[in-house]
Specification:
Blueprint (H helix, E strand, L loop, with lengths): L1 H13 L4 H13 L4 H13 L5 H5 L10 E8 L5 E7 L7 E2 L5 E8 L2 E9 L4 E10 L4 E4 L5 E5 L7 E8 L4 E5 L11 E4 L4 E2 L2 E2 L9 H18 L2
Parallel strand pairs: 1-12
Antiparallel strand pairs: 1-2, 2-9, 3-10, 4-7, 4-9, 5-6, 5-8, 10-11, 12-13
Helix pairs in contact: 2-3
Length: 231
């Protein structure tokens, strides 16, 4: 019994149960001076220890039926990192994109995600598929520009998925591509980073084109605004 209690205590110490405790762990990692290889491993380990309850995850989980996925900001220090919840509708995926930062860590929280990697051939101005990998719940992946480009999607046609993303350092713009193949590398667009919600609070004007939620909120709000304008 004593041995079991010790083992349980050790397990509890390794678990990160809340966003607040995850932020504290990440802040400690960045407070230490170390090589990137060591910091990269520490950040990966921190995400592996995440064990959010449904109640904790639900604070930051927002889906929109008219968007392939939503980007929900849960924490940032505006210098070293940004933490996001991405909520993926069934069967939807991102465009091919790069990462103008040291790297992107992804922890699958619910469901399964599919990562398609690409390599760039600048001589042929091409983007070539380099492999596909699936990440189930509790698995962590890493991507950076020195590895290549990628796109992420939810392969399940019936159920949504939720992923936790850590970008270091934060960035506001990236490059996106609609297609792979020869002659495609130069045909990138600028993708501006936006948020569907911030710290668990939804605003219909945070992220680009209004989705279903924004339209519903506007419909609800409009009669009250019109009524108030006559007062």
């Amino acid at each position: 019994n004593k041995q079991q209690r010790i083992q349980m205590s050790e397990v509890e110490e390794t678990i990160i149960p809340t966003v607040k405790s995850l932020v504290e762990e990440i802040d400690l990692i960045f407070a230490k001076k170390c090589e990137w290889s060591e910091r990269k491993e520490q950040l990966s380990n921190a995400l592996r220890k995440v064990d959010f309850s449904t109640t904790e995850s639900n604070k930051y989980t927002f889906f929109d039926a008219e968007k392939p996925y939503t980007r929900n900001l849960i924490a940032t220090d505006n210098k070293n990192y940004t933490l996001l919840f991405l909520c993926w509708n069934a069967g939807k995926e991102s465009k091919i994109h790069n990462h103008p930062c040291d790297g992107c860590f992804i922890r699958t929280l619910a469901g399964c995600i599919k990562e398609t990697k690409y390599v760039v051939d600048t001589k042929n101005n091409s983007i070539c598929p380099a492999g596909v990998k699936f990440y189930c719940e509790n698995q962590v992946s890493y991507m950076a520009d020195d590895i290549g480009l990628h796109k992420i999607g939810n392969p399940n046609k019936d159920i949504g998925a939720v992923t936790l993303h850590l970008y270091t350092p934060p960035f506001s713009v990236c490059k996106v591509w609609s297609h792979s193949g020869e002659g495609q590398y130069s045909k990138h667009e600028e993708g501006k980073v936006g948020y569907f919600s911030v710290y668990g609070h939804r605003s219909p004007h945070l992220e680009g084109k209004p989705g279903l939620h924004a339209k519903l909120m506007e419909e609800i709000r409009t009669p009250f605004v019109e009524e108030g304008s006559h007062i």
